[in-house]
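Fold this: Uracil phosphoribosyltransferase
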Amino acid sequence: MKDFFQGIASLFEDFLFIPLDALRALQEDSWWAANGLNFVFVLIAFAAFFYWMKQLKKFDDRGEENKSVIAHSYLGKNSDLD
């Protein structure tokens, strides 16, 4: 069983972390280049956020959203607040 876990550790340390080791070495030369992958992820997150906001605006403009106070079941007539 010990060999199995050492094999997994070897897989990650010797092969799968090679790109991350290269980024760590690149940081000595250029901080911007080393963090380029992070910038890509931030741009993807911004694009997803703006798409989501656009979709919410579209539903709001069409009036499909139920905005009443009792729109959710936990605020309905079966609640303990009655």
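The chain has a mean pLDDT of 86. Residues 1-33 form one domain.
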